[in-house]
Amino acid sequence: MMANRTTTDYIPSLIFIETTKACEYTCRHCRAESQTTPAPDQLTLREIEDLLDQIKELSQSPPEVVLTGGDLLLRKDIRDVIAYTHELNIPFSISPAASPLLDDEFIDFIIDNGVKAVSLSIDGTEDGTHDWLRRIPGSFNLTLTLLMRMKKRGVNVQVNTTVMRRNVNELPVLASLVKDIGLSAWEVFFLIKTGRGIRLLDITPEQYMQINHWLSDLSDYGLNVRTVEGPLKRVVPQIKEISPDILSGELYSKLSKETRLSKNTVKDSRTIARSTGNPHHYFRGTLFIGQNGIVYPSGLFTFSLGNIRKEKLKTIISKNTDLLDPRHSGLIKGKCGSCEFLESCGGSRARALAYTGDPFAADPACLYIPVKYNSEVEQRQH
């Protein structure tokens, strides 16, 4: 499957470390099939410290690290992990679950140890949606309380939201919530059918196109919106000039009409995106290291690249450049491979794998037909 290409200097710019599988939540969309206690094959503290040493050695400007889970707060030595990351001067953020363990004393600790940002998830504008998805009554209110508490303490906080059929109509109110609280960013994940998420209803391709159109508009309101498995958002302005019809429709009109945001920060919106946005998303690439050492391109891109218990991280990266940055591999097929926006978008490789079994297939959610692809189809027909 791999192309005959070696790129020894390729370095992902964002590396997720799943510190544990343990989590008090059993979310319906969880990619990890989390459990209430740590798995027996969980990386030890020494193994994580060695991994962090390897990340530090990748570059003079090391990738940003996101410590995640499960719920990292359920890892007994998580403070040692955080302190060591800080000691190495690696830029890092954390993504815990909304939990009473995220108390004032822990917030003090992460502030003292240089955490760059904290992300919490809100997947609906009321407990009916959010608590249903999280399976814990009161989790919506707890999350809001924690967000505002950390914001008040000066912590850089962002909200993560997974888009699925259930919560599409709640997106405008979620946008207002993010802006009203004054959070640094809204990270919008598009559901990939993996883990428990296989049982949830995904949005349609038409909805995917229209939601990305609407998300792109939010920059006019000073909102810093990033997408995960939604690379289309990067090229919405260009597509609007070529094929505006595929980006518009009933859902786009509804979301736009129900958006209750002030445009009084238009002048600052691009500055906000540059100053608070994570440049790693736009885009050198990501890497996800599971709690047992298995390495994946991302948390939703479930294609194993190797295991840090068997090989050095740098070796795994250099062996798998074509999967970590497939836009330059020449392996992407179909209309994505022929698309004029391949470099800036590239389609979702995780979605292609989940829906077709082939990570290099065309993104099944994208309805845009590249001009070059049309020409190639016509040539084959003749």
- Read across the widest sheet, the strand sequence of neighbours is 3-2-1-8-9-10
- Mean pLDDT reading: 87
Largest sheet: 6 strands, mixed
Q: What would you give as the CATH superfamily of the largest domain?
A: Aldolase class I
Q: First CA to last CA: what distance? A: 30 Å
Examine the secondary-structure arrangement and name the CATH architecture of the largest domain: Alpha-Beta Barrel
**At the first level of CATH, what is the class of the largest domain?**
Alpha Beta
> Which parts are unreliable, with pLDDT below 50 for 5 consecutive residues or more?
1-7, 265-283
Word description of this protein:
The protein has 382 residues and is of the alpha/beta class. The chain folds into two domains: 14-281, Alpha-Beta Barrel (TIM Barrel), CATH 3.20.20; 325-382, no CATH class. Helices cover 36% and strands 11% of the residues. It contains 15 helices and ten strands. It has helices spanning 45-57, 78-87, 104-112, 127-134, 139-152, 171-181, 205-217, 236-242, 250-257, 266-276, 313-319, 321-324, 334-338, 349-356, 371-381; strands at 14-18, 64-68, 92-94, 118-121, 157-163, 185-190, 225-228, 286-289, 294-296, 306-307. It has a six-stranded mixed β-sheet, covered by helices on one side. A four-stranded parallel β-sheet has the order 4-5-6-7. Strand 6, helix 7 (205-217) and strand 7 form a beta-alpha-beta unit. The longest helix is centred in the middle third of the chain and has 14 residues, at 139-152. The radius of gyration is 20 Å and the shape is globular. The model is unreliable at 1-7 and 265-283 (pLDDT under 50).
